[in-house]
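Sequence and fold
=================
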Amino acid sequence: MPDDVKITTTRKRQPAVPRDAAATTQTRLTMSVTHALNILWSFSADQPAWGVNELGRALGLSNSMVSRLLATLAERRLVEQDPGSGKFRLGPGVLELSGVMLSQLELRQVASLHLRRLAEATGETGNLAILDVDRAVLIDQVPSPDPVRYVGWIGEREPLHCSSPGKVFLAFTDTSLLDTVIASGLERQTASTITDPDQLRAEIEAIRKRGFAINTAEYVDSANGMAAPVWTYPNELAGSVSIAGPAYRLTRERMLELGPQLLETAGAISSALGATREVSIRK
């Protein structure tokens, strides 16, 4: 072949898609996504499973469309079919997606506004703590607006047996933690610290029944406090929310009166973290 001969190739031009057709295709895709989302939102506690026919009737869709959409959702594990009844229910993919979202909700960030409202409403210092092995660790605090107040510090590590956050962790975690704390010795912090194992066990049992813990100058002289558990998805203990103040103002009687308000705050934080555990107060 001569060197000066150029070889060229041509590609057959594809006909342009009419704008109206492209818009129609986009509309169909949007409607398909909408129908798929409507299918997912059809599942509830009252209606946890659906057959193809009944789902089609409920949504006003043809059985063939419902079947196609369910097949696609099943591929992504967002729904699954019960082999016995043939009905569909939500699949494990939904849990995976919710786990991603919930993992981004940090306890401190979620609790911040609720903690501030609690401090303002009670006039006492609001605290947020987590469990670290055998100590309650303060991770956030909103000081009392009153000039006479109890203020700890972020990172403070409090003993479990004599602080209100610590007692919450002893009451609402595995009983082995209480056994470990007792076995290691109940160090006296003040004249009011509980150092008798049987008395501490009785105290922890009372906390479980009441729903929140009370500390009457057991950790710091002349300072009282109360704490309630904060739960996260799926109903696991995430931390504790508490208030603390001078004993002459935050008396035991006042703490019992504030119990419902503290539990309400703990419940609001827990709900924001995805927990479904209900809180109640029993005096």
Remarks:
- The two ends are 102 Å apart (CA to CA).
- The longest strand covers residues 236-246.
